[in-house]
Amino acid sequence: MATSQTLHDRAPDTRPKSVGLLLIKPSRYDDDGYVIQWWRSYMQANVLSVVAGVVVDAGKRGALGPDVRLETRLIDEISEVVRPAKLERWLAGFDVAAVLLVGVQTSQFPRALDIARPFTAKGYPTIIGGFHVSGSVAMVPDWAPAFRGAREAGVSLYAGELECGVDALLNDIMTGSVKPLYNVLSDRADLTEAPPQIIDPGLAARSVGRSYCMEIGRGCPFWCSFCSIINVHGQAMRHRSPAAIEAYLRDCAAVGGRTIIITDDNFSRSPIWRDITEIMGRLHRELKIDWDALIQTDALATRVPGFVEACRDAGVKRVIIGMESVRADNLAAAGKGQNKVHQMRDTILAWKRAGIVVLAGIIVGFPNDTPDRIAEDIRHIQEVIPIDIPEFFVLTPHPGSEDHRRLLAEGGRSTPT
Ligand code: B12
Ligand code: SF4
Protein backbone atom coordinates (compact mmCIF):
# COMPACT_ATOMS: atom_id res chain seq x y z
CA MET A 1 0.00 0.00 0.00
CA ALA A 2 1.55 3.29 -1.08
CA THR A 3 2.02 5.97 1.56
CA SER A 4 3.28 9.53 1.35
CA GLN A 5 5.74 8.96 4.20
CA THR A 6 9.28 10.12 3.57
CA LEU A 7 12.42 8.90 5.21
CA HIS A 8 12.94 12.17 6.95
CA ASP A 9 9.56 11.76 8.75
CA ARG A 10 10.94 8.81 10.68
CA ALA A 11 12.45 8.93 14.15
CA PRO A 12 16.25 8.60 13.76
CA ASP A 13 16.43 5.28 15.63
CA THR A 14 13.89 3.63 13.30
CA ARG A 15 15.66 4.67 10.10
CA PRO A 16 17.35 1.86 8.17
CA LYS A 17 21.13 2.04 8.37
CA SER A 18 22.06 -0.20 5.46
CA VAL A 19 20.65 -0.68 1.98
CA GLY A 20 21.47 -3.36 -0.57
CA LEU A 21 20.51 -2.88 -4.19
CA LEU A 22 20.89 -5.84 -6.49
CA LEU A 23 21.14 -4.74 -10.12
CA ILE A 24 20.61 -7.46 -12.70
CA LYS A 25 20.70 -7.10 -16.48
CA PRO A 26 18.74 -10.16 -17.64
CA SER A 27 19.66 -12.24 -20.66
CA ARG A 28 16.87 -13.86 -22.69
CA TYR A 29 15.57 -17.31 -23.57
CA ASP A 30 16.48 -19.11 -26.77
CA ASP A 31 13.81 -20.91 -28.84
CA ASP A 32 14.11 -24.02 -26.62
CA GLY A 33 13.65 -22.06 -23.41
CA TYR A 34 17.29 -22.02 -22.27
CA VAL A 35 18.84 -18.83 -20.94
CA ILE A 36 21.41 -17.57 -23.45
CA GLN A 37 24.78 -17.25 -21.75
CA TRP A 38 28.37 -16.89 -22.86
CA TRP A 39 31.70 -17.32 -21.16
CA ARG A 40 32.40 -13.68 -22.03
CA SER A 41 29.92 -11.05 -23.22
CA TYR A 42 30.46 -9.27 -26.51
CA MET A 43 30.64 -6.00 -24.61
CA GLN A 44 30.04 -4.79 -21.07
CA ALA A 45 26.43 -3.77 -20.31
CA ASN A 46 26.37 0.00 -20.53
CA VAL A 47 23.01 0.37 -18.81
CA LEU A 48 24.26 -1.48 -15.70
CA SER A 49 27.03 1.03 -15.17
CA VAL A 50 24.74 3.98 -15.92
CA VAL A 51 22.00 2.86 -13.51
CA ALA A 52 24.58 1.97 -10.84
CA GLY A 53 26.11 5.44 -11.27
CA VAL A 54 22.73 7.08 -10.67
CA VAL A 55 21.95 5.14 -7.48
CA VAL A 56 25.45 5.48 -6.07
CA ASP A 57 25.28 9.23 -6.65
CA ALA A 58 21.85 9.40 -4.96
CA GLY A 59 23.35 7.62 -1.94
CA LYS A 60 26.22 10.13 -1.80
CA ARG A 61 23.74 13.03 -2.03
CA GLY A 62 21.92 11.70 1.03
CA ALA A 63 18.76 10.61 -0.83
CA LEU A 64 18.68 7.47 1.33
CA GLY A 65 18.82 9.49 4.52
CA PRO A 66 21.79 10.46 6.67
CA ASP A 67 24.47 7.90 7.57
CA VAL A 68 23.05 5.10 5.46
CA ARG A 69 25.46 2.56 4.02
CA LEU A 70 24.58 1.69 0.40
CA GLU A 71 25.96 -1.39 -1.29
CA THR A 72 25.27 -2.41 -4.87
CA ARG A 73 25.85 -5.72 -6.58
CA LEU A 74 25.91 -5.83 -10.37
CA ILE A 75 25.16 -8.91 -12.47
CA ASP A 76 25.09 -9.18 -16.25
CA GLU A 77 23.31 -12.47 -16.81
CA ILE A 78 24.76 -12.82 -20.30
CA SER A 79 27.99 -13.98 -18.62
CA GLU A 80 27.04 -14.75 -15.01
CA VAL A 81 24.55 -17.27 -13.64
CA VAL A 82 21.82 -15.72 -11.48
CA ARG A 83 21.50 -17.82 -8.30
CA PRO A 84 18.45 -16.55 -6.39
CA ALA A 85 19.14 -18.44 -3.12
CA LYS A 86 22.70 -17.06 -2.90
CA LEU A 87 21.54 -13.57 -3.83
CA GLU A 88 18.76 -13.68 -1.24
CA ARG A 89 21.40 -14.36 1.42
CA TRP A 90 23.22 -11.24 0.22
CA LEU A 91 20.01 -9.17 0.31
CA ALA A 92 19.19 -10.46 3.80
CA GLY A 93 22.34 -8.78 5.14
CA PHE A 94 20.80 -5.30 4.87
CA ASP A 95 18.11 -3.41 6.79
CA VAL A 96 16.47 -2.64 3.44
CA ALA A 97 17.04 -4.35 0.11
CA ALA A 98 15.59 -4.30 -3.38
CA VAL A 99 16.14 -5.83 -6.78
CA LEU A 100 16.44 -3.65 -9.90
CA LEU A 101 16.14 -5.40 -13.26
CA VAL A 102 17.90 -3.01 -15.56
CA GLY A 103 17.88 -2.19 -19.25
CA VAL A 104 15.23 -4.80 -19.94
CA GLN A 105 14.52 -5.00 -23.67
CA THR A 106 11.43 -6.63 -25.15
CA SER A 107 13.23 -9.92 -25.84
CA GLN A 108 14.44 -9.99 -22.23
CA PHE A 109 11.20 -9.14 -20.47
CA PRO A 110 9.95 -12.76 -19.99
CA ARG A 111 13.33 -13.68 -18.48
CA ALA A 112 13.28 -10.58 -16.27
CA LEU A 113 9.91 -11.67 -14.84
CA ASP A 114 11.20 -15.17 -14.12
CA ILE A 115 14.24 -13.73 -12.32
CA ALA A 116 11.96 -11.43 -10.33
CA ARG A 117 9.53 -14.06 -9.02
CA PRO A 118 11.69 -15.69 -6.29
CA PHE A 119 12.59 -12.23 -4.98
CA THR A 120 9.03 -10.84 -4.88
CA ALA A 121 7.94 -14.13 -3.25
CA LYS A 122 10.37 -13.33 -0.41
CA GLY A 123 8.97 -9.80 -0.16
CA TYR A 124 11.84 -7.88 -1.79
CA PRO A 125 10.66 -4.90 -3.85
CA THR A 126 11.57 -5.71 -7.43
CA ILE A 127 11.43 -3.14 -10.21
CA ILE A 128 11.84 -3.56 -13.96
CA GLY A 129 13.02 -0.66 -16.11
CA GLY A 130 14.36 -0.25 -19.62
CA PHE A 131 13.14 -0.04 -23.19
CA HIS A 132 10.33 -2.61 -23.05
CA VAL A 133 8.50 -0.82 -20.26
CA SER A 134 9.37 2.70 -21.46
CA GLY A 135 8.53 1.98 -25.11
CA SER A 136 5.23 0.31 -24.25
CA VAL A 137 4.07 3.03 -21.89
CA ALA A 138 5.19 5.73 -24.35
CA MET A 139 3.57 4.34 -27.47
CA VAL A 140 0.84 1.79 -26.63
CA PRO A 141 -2.36 3.53 -25.50
CA ASP A 142 -3.70 0.46 -23.66
CA TRP A 143 -0.39 -1.02 -22.53
CA ALA A 144 -1.50 -2.41 -19.14
CA PRO A 145 -3.05 -5.76 -20.26
CA ALA A 146 0.28 -6.83 -21.78
CA PHE A 147 1.89 -6.44 -18.31
CA ARG A 148 -0.57 -8.68 -16.44
CA GLY A 149 2.28 -11.10 -15.65
CA ALA A 150 4.24 -8.37 -13.88
CA ARG A 151 1.21 -7.32 -11.84
CA GLU A 152 0.52 -10.91 -10.80
CA ALA A 153 4.15 -11.41 -9.79
CA GLY A 154 4.10 -8.23 -7.69
CA VAL A 155 6.77 -6.63 -9.86
CA SER A 156 6.87 -2.84 -10.21
CA LEU A 157 7.48 -1.10 -13.52
CA TYR A 158 9.53 2.02 -14.19
CA ALA A 159 8.98 3.98 -17.42
CA GLY A 160 11.50 6.67 -18.28
CA GLU A 161 14.98 7.67 -17.22
CA LEU A 162 16.15 6.87 -13.72
CA GLU A 163 17.93 10.23 -13.38
CA CYS A 164 14.47 11.85 -13.41
CA GLY A 165 12.91 9.84 -10.58
CA VAL A 166 15.68 8.20 -8.56
CA ASP A 167 15.06 10.07 -5.30
CA ALA A 168 11.34 9.24 -5.25
CA LEU A 169 12.00 5.59 -6.04
CA LEU A 170 14.71 5.22 -3.40
CA ASN A 171 12.53 6.94 -0.84
CA ASP A 172 9.75 4.43 -1.55
CA ILE A 173 12.19 1.53 -1.29
CA MET A 174 13.44 2.86 2.06
CA THR A 175 9.93 3.37 3.45
CA GLY A 176 8.51 0.09 2.12
CA SER A 177 6.04 1.86 -0.13
CA VAL A 178 7.12 0.94 -3.66
CA LYS A 179 4.35 1.60 -6.19
CA PRO A 180 3.29 -0.66 -9.05
CA LEU A 181 4.22 1.95 -11.67
CA TYR A 182 6.60 4.89 -11.96
CA ASN A 183 6.17 6.97 -15.07
CA VAL A 184 8.62 9.84 -15.61
CA LEU A 185 8.48 9.75 -19.40
CA SER A 186 7.46 13.39 -19.58
CA ASP A 187 10.93 14.29 -18.21
CA ARG A 188 14.26 13.80 -19.94
CA ALA A 189 17.51 13.86 -18.01
CA ASP A 190 19.85 16.82 -18.41
CA LEU A 191 22.90 14.72 -19.17
CA THR A 192 25.33 17.58 -18.66
CA GLU A 193 24.43 17.28 -14.95
CA ALA A 194 24.01 13.47 -14.89
CA PRO A 195 26.02 11.33 -12.47
CA PRO A 196 28.94 9.52 -14.10
CA GLN A 197 28.50 5.87 -14.98
CA ILE A 198 30.52 3.65 -12.69
CA ILE A 199 33.68 1.85 -13.69
CA ASP A 200 33.61 -1.81 -12.71
CA PRO A 201 36.72 -3.78 -13.73
CA GLY A 202 34.97 -6.98 -12.57
CA LEU A 203 32.23 -6.53 -15.16
CA ALA A 204 34.76 -5.51 -17.78
CA ALA A 205 36.72 -8.69 -17.13
CA ARG A 206 33.65 -10.71 -18.09
CA SER A 207 33.57 -9.16 -21.57
CA VAL A 208 35.70 -9.83 -24.63
CA GLY A 209 38.62 -7.41 -24.65
CA ARG A 210 37.79 -6.15 -21.13
CA SER A 211 35.58 -3.48 -22.64
CA TYR A 212 34.19 -0.38 -20.98
CA CYS A 213 31.02 1.14 -22.37
CA MET A 214 30.81 4.89 -22.61
CA GLU A 215 27.56 6.78 -23.02
CA ILE A 216 28.17 10.23 -24.44
CA GLY A 217 24.56 11.09 -25.13
CA ARG A 218 21.04 10.00 -25.96
CA GLY A 219 18.66 10.66 -28.84
CA CYS A 220 18.72 10.58 -32.62
CA PRO A 221 17.37 13.14 -35.10
CA PHE A 222 16.04 10.60 -37.66
CA TRP A 223 12.64 8.87 -38.04
CA CYS A 224 13.19 5.16 -38.73
CA SER A 225 9.88 3.43 -38.19
CA PHE A 226 11.34 0.26 -36.59
CA CYS A 227 13.29 2.23 -33.97
CA SER A 228 12.13 2.91 -30.41
CA ILE A 229 14.99 5.21 -29.44
CA ILE A 230 13.36 8.33 -30.86
CA ASN A 231 10.13 7.69 -28.95
CA VAL A 232 11.87 6.97 -25.64
CA HIS A 233 15.05 9.06 -25.59
CA GLY A 234 13.73 11.60 -28.09
CA GLN A 235 14.98 13.22 -31.28
CA ALA A 236 16.89 16.04 -29.59
CA MET A 237 20.53 15.10 -29.09
CA ARG A 238 21.49 15.35 -25.41
CA HIS A 239 25.01 14.80 -24.19
CA ARG A 240 27.20 14.53 -21.11
CA SER A 241 29.81 17.22 -20.61
CA PRO A 242 33.17 16.74 -22.38
CA ALA A 243 34.88 17.23 -19.00
CA ALA A 244 32.87 14.34 -17.54
CA ILE A 245 33.77 12.14 -20.51
CA GLU A 246 37.45 13.00 -20.12
CA ALA A 247 37.32 12.12 -16.42
CA TYR A 248 35.61 8.81 -17.27
CA LEU A 249 38.24 7.94 -19.89
CA ARG A 250 41.06 8.78 -17.47
CA ASP A 251 39.47 6.53 -14.84
CA CYS A 252 39.11 3.71 -17.37
CA ALA A 253 42.75 4.12 -18.35
CA ALA A 254 43.79 4.05 -14.68
CA VAL A 255 42.34 0.54 -14.31
CA GLY A 256 43.81 -0.69 -17.58
CA GLY A 257 40.79 -0.04 -19.81
CA ARG A 258 41.64 0.33 -23.50
CA THR A 259 38.58 -1.04 -25.29
CA ILE A 260 35.88 1.60 -25.31
CA ILE A 261 32.40 0.95 -26.69
CA ILE A 262 30.66 4.26 -27.39
CA THR A 263 27.01 3.24 -27.08
CA ASP A 264 25.46 6.35 -28.67
CA ASP A 265 23.24 5.32 -31.55
CA ASN A 266 24.59 7.91 -33.87
CA PHE A 267 27.97 9.30 -32.87
CA SER A 268 28.31 11.56 -35.94
CA ARG A 269 25.16 13.44 -34.88
CA SER A 270 26.44 14.08 -31.36
CA PRO A 271 27.04 17.82 -30.98
CA ILE A 272 30.31 16.96 -29.18
CA TRP A 273 31.90 14.37 -31.48
CA ARG A 274 34.75 16.81 -32.19
CA ASP A 275 35.40 17.32 -28.45
CA ILE A 276 35.35 13.58 -27.77
CA THR A 277 37.68 12.63 -30.62
CA GLU A 278 40.02 15.44 -29.58
CA ILE A 279 40.01 14.21 -25.95
CA MET A 280 40.69 10.61 -26.98
CA GLY A 281 43.51 11.69 -29.29
CA ARG A 282 45.02 13.86 -26.56
CA LEU A 283 44.83 11.08 -23.95
CA HIS A 284 46.35 8.68 -26.47
CA ARG A 285 49.40 10.95 -26.74
CA GLU A 286 49.57 11.91 -23.07
CA LEU A 287 48.94 8.50 -21.49
CA LYS A 288 50.41 6.44 -24.35
CA ILE A 289 47.14 4.55 -24.69
CA ASP A 290 46.24 2.83 -27.90
CA TRP A 291 42.46 3.02 -27.65
CA ASP A 292 40.39 0.33 -29.35
CA ALA A 293 37.10 2.17 -29.73
CA LEU A 294 33.85 1.14 -31.36
CA ILE A 295 31.21 3.57 -32.54
CA GLN A 296 27.77 3.36 -34.14
CA THR A 297 26.76 5.86 -36.74
CA ASP A 298 24.53 6.45 -39.73
CA ALA A 299 25.48 5.86 -43.34
CA LEU A 300 25.80 9.58 -44.01
CA ALA A 301 28.55 10.06 -41.43
CA THR A 302 31.33 9.85 -44.00
CA ARG A 303 29.95 13.08 -45.51
CA VAL A 304 30.45 15.00 -42.27
CA PRO A 305 33.68 16.94 -42.94
CA GLY A 306 36.60 15.55 -40.97
CA PHE A 307 34.55 12.92 -39.12
CA VAL A 308 36.23 9.75 -40.40
CA GLU A 309 39.73 11.18 -39.93
CA ALA A 310 38.91 12.43 -36.43
CA CYS A 311 37.59 8.96 -35.48
CA ARG A 312 40.71 7.28 -36.89
CA ASP A 313 43.00 9.63 -34.95
CA ALA A 314 40.97 9.08 -31.78
CA GLY A 315 41.52 5.31 -31.92
CA VAL A 316 38.25 4.13 -33.44
CA LYS A 317 38.96 0.65 -34.80
CA ARG A 318 35.39 -0.56 -35.53
CA VAL A 319 32.29 1.18 -36.76
CA ILE A 320 28.73 -0.17 -36.82
CA ILE A 321 26.60 1.31 -39.58
CA GLY A 322 22.83 1.04 -39.77
CA MET A 323 22.75 0.17 -43.46
CA GLU A 324 19.48 -1.79 -43.10
CA SER A 325 18.91 -2.60 -46.79
CA VAL A 326 20.31 -2.29 -50.30
CA ARG A 327 16.81 -1.64 -51.68
CA ALA A 328 15.43 1.87 -52.00
CA ASP A 329 11.83 0.64 -51.52
CA ASN A 330 12.77 -1.05 -48.21
CA LEU A 331 14.55 2.06 -46.98
CA ALA A 332 11.55 4.21 -47.93
CA ALA A 333 9.19 1.76 -46.15
CA ALA A 334 11.28 2.10 -42.98
CA GLY A 335 11.37 5.90 -43.15
CA LYS A 336 15.13 5.66 -43.67
CA GLY A 337 15.32 7.78 -46.81
CA GLN A 338 18.56 9.29 -45.51
CA ASN A 339 20.39 6.08 -46.55
CA LYS A 340 21.17 6.23 -50.26
CA VAL A 341 21.75 2.87 -51.90
CA HIS A 342 24.02 4.30 -54.60
CA GLN A 343 26.30 5.87 -51.95
CA MET A 344 26.76 2.71 -49.83
CA ARG A 345 29.89 1.43 -51.53
CA ASP A 346 31.68 4.78 -51.23
CA THR A 347 30.59 5.08 -47.61
CA ILE A 348 32.08 1.71 -46.69
CA LEU A 349 35.25 2.40 -48.67
CA ALA A 350 35.77 5.70 -46.83
CA TRP A 351 35.88 3.83 -43.52
CA LYS A 352 38.08 1.08 -44.89
CA ARG A 353 40.57 3.58 -46.33
CA ALA A 354 40.94 4.88 -42.78
CA GLY A 355 41.73 1.33 -41.61
CA ILE A 356 38.48 0.98 -39.67
CA VAL A 357 36.60 -2.34 -39.65
CA VAL A 358 33.01 -1.97 -40.84
CA LEU A 359 30.11 -3.89 -39.32
CA ALA A 360 26.77 -3.20 -40.96
CA GLY A 361 23.30 -4.01 -39.68
CA ILE A 362 21.02 -5.39 -42.40
CA ILE A 363 17.33 -6.02 -41.84
CA VAL A 364 15.40 -8.72 -43.66
CA GLY A 365 11.62 -9.11 -43.69
CA PHE A 366 10.49 -5.79 -45.16
CA PRO A 367 7.06 -5.91 -46.82
CA ASN A 368 8.50 -6.34 -50.33
CA ASP A 369 11.17 -8.88 -49.33
CA THR A 370 10.95 -12.42 -50.68
CA PRO A 371 13.45 -15.27 -50.23
CA ASP A 372 14.71 -14.71 -53.79
CA ARG A 373 15.10 -10.97 -53.28
CA ILE A 374 16.99 -11.50 -50.03
CA ALA A 375 19.35 -13.99 -51.74
CA GLU A 376 19.92 -11.45 -54.51
CA ASP A 377 20.64 -8.71 -51.94
CA ILE A 378 23.19 -10.91 -50.19
CA ARG A 379 24.94 -11.59 -53.50
CA HIS A 380 24.94 -7.85 -54.24
CA ILE A 381 26.50 -7.11 -50.85
CA GLN A 382 29.17 -9.79 -51.38
CA GLU A 383 30.07 -8.49 -54.81
CA VAL A 384 29.66 -4.72 -54.53
CA ILE A 385 29.58 -3.47 -50.94
CA PRO A 386 32.79 -4.31 -49.08
CA ILE A 387 31.41 -4.70 -45.56
CA ASP A 388 33.73 -6.61 -43.23
CA ILE A 389 31.03 -8.07 -40.98
CA PRO A 390 27.38 -7.99 -42.03
CA GLU A 391 24.88 -8.55 -39.20
CA PHE A 392 21.43 -9.72 -40.26
CA PHE A 393 18.32 -8.92 -38.24
CA VAL A 394 14.70 -9.86 -38.82
CA LEU A 395 12.41 -6.83 -38.91
CA THR A 396 10.64 -6.83 -35.53
CA PRO A 397 8.02 -4.32 -34.40
CA HIS A 398 9.27 -3.60 -30.88
CA PRO A 399 6.98 -1.73 -28.50
CA GLY A 400 8.11 1.88 -28.62
CA SER A 401 8.48 1.89 -32.39
CA GLU A 402 6.20 3.47 -34.94
CA ASP A 403 5.90 0.06 -36.66
CA HIS A 404 4.50 -1.45 -33.48
CA ARG A 405 2.09 1.44 -32.92
CA ARG A 406 0.80 1.18 -36.48
CA LEU A 407 0.36 -2.60 -36.38
CA LEU A 408 -1.61 -2.33 -33.13
CA ALA A 409 -3.80 0.38 -34.66
CA GLU A 410 -4.42 -1.93 -37.61
CA GLY A 411 -5.70 -4.64 -35.26
CA GLY A 412 -2.58 -6.44 -34.02
CA ARG A 413 -2.06 -7.43 -30.40
CA SER A 414 0.79 -6.62 -27.99
CA THR A 415 2.26 -9.87 -26.66
CA PRO A 416 1.10 -10.54 -23.10
CA THR A 417 3.95 -11.14 -20.69
C1 B12 B 1 24.30 -0.75 -26.88
C2 B12 B 1 23.02 -1.44 -27.33
C3 B12 B 1 23.07 -2.80 -27.56
C4 B12 B 1 24.29 -3.62 -27.28
C5 B12 B 1 24.30 -3.93 -25.78
C6 B12 B 1 25.70 -3.71 -25.36
C7 B12 B 1 25.86 -3.50 -23.95
N1 B12 B 1 26.43 -4.52 -23.43
O1 B12 B 1 25.52 -2.49 -23.40
C8 B12 B 1 24.06 -4.89 -28.15
C9 B12 B 1 24.77 -4.71 -29.46
C10 B12 B 1 24.52 -6.22 -27.55
C11 B12 B 1 22.56 -4.83 -28.34
C12 B12 B 1 21.82 -5.89 -28.74
C13 B12 B 1 20.47 -5.84 -29.02
N2 B12 B 1 19.70 -4.73 -29.01
CO1 B12 B 1 20.31 -3.00 -28.40
N3 B12 B 1 20.76 -1.25 -27.97
C14 B12 B 1 21.84 -0.72 -27.50
C15 B12 B 1 21.64 0.79 -27.33
C16 B12 B 1 22.27 1.47 -28.54
C17 B12 B 1 22.21 1.41 -26.07
C18 B12 B 1 21.73 0.75 -24.76
C19 B12 B 1 22.08 1.64 -23.61
O2 B12 B 1 23.01 1.38 -22.90
N4 B12 B 1 21.34 2.75 -23.45
C20 B12 B 1 21.56 3.74 -22.39
C21 B12 B 1 20.67 3.43 -21.18
C22 B12 B 1 21.18 4.22 -20.00
O3 B12 B 1 19.36 3.84 -21.54
P1 B12 B 1 18.07 3.03 -21.03
O4 B12 B 1 18.23 1.59 -21.33
O5 B12 B 1 16.87 3.72 -21.56
O6 B12 B 1 18.14 3.18 -19.46
C23 B12 B 1 17.53 4.28 -18.77
C24 B12 B 1 16.07 4.02 -18.41
O7 B12 B 1 15.44 3.02 -19.19
C25 B12 B 1 16.07 3.70 -16.96
N5 B12 B 1 16.27 2.31 -16.55
C26 B12 B 1 16.88 1.32 -17.21
N6 B12 B 1 16.85 0.19 -16.47
C27 B12 B 1 16.23 0.48 -15.32
C28 B12 B 1 15.93 -0.34 -14.22
C29 B12 B 1 15.21 0.20 -13.15
C30 B12 B 1 14.88 -0.67 -12.02
C31 B12 B 1 14.85 1.55 -13.19
C32 B12 B 1 14.11 2.12 -12.03
C33 B12 B 1 15.14 2.39 -14.28
C34 B12 B 1 15.83 1.83 -15.34
O8 B12 B 1 17.14 4.47 -16.48
C35 B12 B 1 18.22 4.40 -17.43
C36 B12 B 1 19.04 5.68 -17.28
O9 B12 B 1 18.26 6.79 -17.61
C37 B12 B 1 20.08 0.89 -27.32
C38 B12 B 1 19.52 2.18 -27.80
C39 B12 B 1 19.64 3.23 -26.72
N7 B12 B 1 20.05 4.38 -27.09
O10 B12 B 1 19.39 2.99 -25.52
C40 B12 B 1 19.70 -0.30 -28.22
C41 B12 B 1 18.37 -1.00 -27.96
C42 B12 B 1 18.17 -1.10 -26.47
N8 B12 B 1 18.58 -2.34 -28.53
C43 B12 B 1 17.53 -2.82 -29.10
C44 B12 B 1 17.47 -4.10 -29.71
C45 B12 B 1 16.18 -4.42 -30.48
C46 B12 B 1 18.51 -5.00 -29.62
C47 B12 B 1 18.54 -6.42 -30.18
C48 B12 B 1 17.26 -7.23 -29.98
C49 B12 B 1 18.95 -6.33 -31.64
C50 B12 B 1 18.80 -7.68 -32.33
N9 B12 B 1 17.81 -7.76 -33.21
O11 B12 B 1 19.55 -8.57 -32.06
C51 B12 B 1 19.71 -7.05 -29.41
C52 B12 B 1 19.16 -7.78 -28.17
C53 B12 B 1 20.20 -8.35 -27.30
C54 B12 B 1 19.62 -9.37 -26.37
N10 B12 B 1 20.45 -9.87 -25.50
O12 B12 B 1 18.49 -9.76 -26.40
C55 B12 B 1 16.36 -1.87 -29.02
C56 B12 B 1 15.37 -2.33 -27.93
C57 B12 B 1 13.92 -2.18 -28.33
C58 B12 B 1 13.04 -2.94 -27.39
N11 B12 B 1 11.81 -2.50 -27.24
O13 B12 B 1 13.41 -3.94 -26.82
C59 B12 B 1 17.09 -0.51 -28.74
C60 B12 B 1 16.26 0.50 -27.96
C61 B12 B 1 17.51 0.06 -30.11
C62 B12 B 1 16.39 0.44 -31.07
N12 B12 B 1 16.79 0.79 -32.29
O14 B12 B 1 15.21 0.46 -30.83
N13 B12 B 1 22.08 -3.58 -28.07
S1 SF4 C 1 19.27 6.36 -37.48
FE1 SF4 C 1 19.42 4.62 -36.00
S2 SF4 C 1 19.02 5.50 -33.97
FE2 SF4 C 1 18.34 7.01 -35.51
S3 SF4 C 1 16.14 6.66 -35.74
FE3 SF4 C 1 17.21 5.44 -37.33
S4 SF4 C 1 17.57 3.40 -36.39
FE4 SF4 C 1 17.02 4.83 -34.73
Short précis:
The chain has helices spanning 46-60, 84-91, 109-121, 131-139, 148-153, 166-174, 201-205, 229-232, 242-254, 273-287, 307-314, 328-333, 344-353, 371-384, 402-409; strands at residues 18-25, 69-76, 96-101, 126-129, 156-159, 181-183, 212-214, 217-218, 238-239, 259-262, 292-297, 316-324, 357-364, 389-394.
Radius of gyration: 22 Å
Number of strands: 14
Q: Could you give a short account of the major beta sheet?
A: 6 strands, parallel
Shape: globular
CATH topology of the largest domain: TIM Barrel
> How would you classify the helix and strand content by structural class?
alpha/beta
Give the strand content: 15-25%
Placed side by side, the strands forming the largest sheet appear as 2-1-3-4-5-6
Ordered list of secondary-structure elements with their pairings:
Blueprint: E1 18-25, H1 46-60, E2 69-76, H2 84-91, E3 96-101, H3 109-121, E4 126-129, H4 131-139, H5 148-153, E5 156-159, H6 166-174, E6 181-183, H7 201-205, E7 212-214, E8 217-218, H8 229-232, E9 238-239, H9 242-254, E10 259-262, H10 273-287, E11 292-297, H11 307-314, E12 316-324, H12 328-333, H13 344-353, E13 357-364, H14 371-384, E14 389-394, H15 402-409
Parallel strand pairs: 1-2, 1-3, 3-4, 4-5, 5-6, 7-10, 10-11, 11-12, 12-13, 13-14
Antiparallel strand pairs: 8-9
Helix pairs in contact: 9-10, 10-11
The site of iron/sulfur cluster has 10 residues, from helix 8.
